[in-house]
Amino acid sequence: GEYAMDAAAFRQVTREVCELPSFFTPLLMHRIAGTDPIVAADLNDSTAAHGPRSPTAPAADPAPVTLAQFTGYWRSTLAQCAEANARVFEVMRGSGLPHGDPARSGEVPRAYLEHADFCPILRCILDTHPGLEFLKDSPEFQDRYLETVTYRIFYSCNPAWNGRMALRELQRSNLVQAMAHVDDEEDINKVLRYFSYEHFYVIYCKFWELDSDHDFLIDKEDLLRYGNHALTYRAVDRVFAEAPRRFVSGVRGKMGFEDFVWFILSEEDKSTPLALEYWFRCVDLDGNSALTPSECSFFYEEQLQRMECLSQEPVLFEDILCQMSDMLSPQEQGRITLRDLRRCKLAGNFFNVLFNLNKFIAFETRDPFLIRQEREEPHLTEWDRFARAEYIRLSMEEEEGMADGGELWDDSMEPPF
C-alpha cells in the first residue's frame, strides 16, 4: 500500500509545510483522517468523570497519514487559509460540528472555538514539552494545568467572555505568537503568556489556600481571606452577586476554579482592559455604564473605616474624588465611563483606592526599589511580577515545610516541583 507517516515523521510536515507548532501534529493528523482527537467517554459508564467533551478528556492516538490524504486536506482546507491565525483556527475547530454526531453532518460548522477545542493541543504539549516532563506521573496536576491555561486564554483572547472565541478575536490576540514561543522554548516558564507552569502553580496554590474544605468551591468567607484580607466586604459581596461575571460553578453562592481564575487575573493586574471592565461592573451598582460619586463613596466608606481601625491617617472621600478626577479627567464631570478608565495608564489604582487597602497604601508609599525594577523590566506586566514574587514565596514555604517534616498538601494533590 501507499507509504503512511506516523506522528514522529509527520511533525516536520506540521512545522515546515503547514507552518503550525509541532504540538499540532496529532490533532492535524486526526483532522486529515476525519477522526476524533479526544477519547469519547463511555456513555454506559456512569462512573466516567470525563464528559464526552470534558476539557480534560484524554487524547486519542492518530492513525498514520498517507500523502494522498494530506494533499486532499491541504487543498480543501489549509490552502484556503491566508495566514497563521486562520490555520490555527481551522485545525482546532475541525468540522466544528457537534462532536461524534454523524446525523448532523450537513450542518454549517460553528464560527468559534470552545474550551474543549484546546484540549488536544494542550494534551500534546503536556506529553511532549521538555519543560513539563516532571508532570508525567501527576495526571491530576496535568488536568489542572490544562484547565488553567484554557481559562487564561479565554480570559484574554475572548473579550466577549462568552466562551466562544471567534476568528476575529484570535487574530486580535497574541495567542498564536505565544504558541510559537512554546514550540521554540525549552523552559516553559519563559512563556509568560498563558503557558507558564509557575503562573499556573501560583493560581492553583492561591485557590487551594482559600478552599479550606477542598471541595473545589470557594464561598464569600473564603474570598475575604484573599491576599491577607485585601478586599473590602462590599467588593467581595459584588463579586458574589456575580456583577463582574456570572459564575460557572453551578452552585449558588460558590465560586468554582474557573471563576477564581477570572477573579485573580483581574485582581492582580488591574491595568488590562479586561480587568478594568471586571471591576467597573463591580462598582457600577445601578448598571448604567457610568460610575458616579455616590457609587464610589459607597465602596470608599469601608476603606475609611479600615484606615481608622489600622490607625492610618484617613484620607477624606472629597480629597480622593478630586485626585481621581485629576487622574482620570473624565469626559463628563461626575460620571466615569469605562472609556475614561481605559484611556488612563493608572486607572487600576482607582479601584485599589476604592476597595483594596493594601494596594492603596503600597501606591501611596511607592517603594523606590520596585519603581526601579519596573523601569528595568518594562516587558513584565503587573501579573508577571505578582506571579514571580508569589512563586518564590510558595517555593520557600514548601522548602520550610519539608525541613519541618510538615505537609502542605495531602497526598492526593502533591504538587510536583
- Helix count equals 21
Largest sheet: 2 strands, antiparallel
- Please list the strands of the largest sheet in the order they lie side by side: 1-2
Shape summary: elongated
Strand content: under 5%
Distance between the termini: 47 Å
Radius of gyration based on Cα positions: 24 Å
Give the proportion of residues in helices: 40-55%
- Poorly predicted residue ranges: 42-52
**Helix and strand run:** EHHEHHEHHEHHHHHHHHHHHHHHH
Query: What is the typical, i.e. mean, pLDDT?
Result: 89
**Class computed from helices, strands and strand pairing:** mainly alpha
The count of strands amounts to 4
Please characterize this protein's 3D structure.
The protein is mainly α and 417 residues long. Helices cover 53% and strands 2% of the residues. The chain is built from 21 helices and four strands. The strands form two sheets. It has a two-stranded antiparallel ribbon. Strands 3-4 form a two-stranded antiparallel sheet. Residues 42-52 have low confidence and may be disordered.
Structural features:
two-stranded antiparallel sheet; 21 helices; mainly alpha
Short description:
With 417 residues, this protein is mainly α.
Give the helix/strand layout.
Layout: E1 4-5, H1 7-17, H2 25-33, E2 65-66, H3 67-76, H4 84-93, E3 112-113, H5 119-128, H6 139-157, E4 165-166, H7 167-172, H8 175-184, H9 197-210, H10 220-224, H11 226-229, H12 233-240, H13 257-268, H14 273-283, H15 293-309, H16 317-328, H17 338-343, H18 347-355, H19 357-364, H20 368-376, H21 382-403
Antiparallel strand pairs: 1-2, 3-4
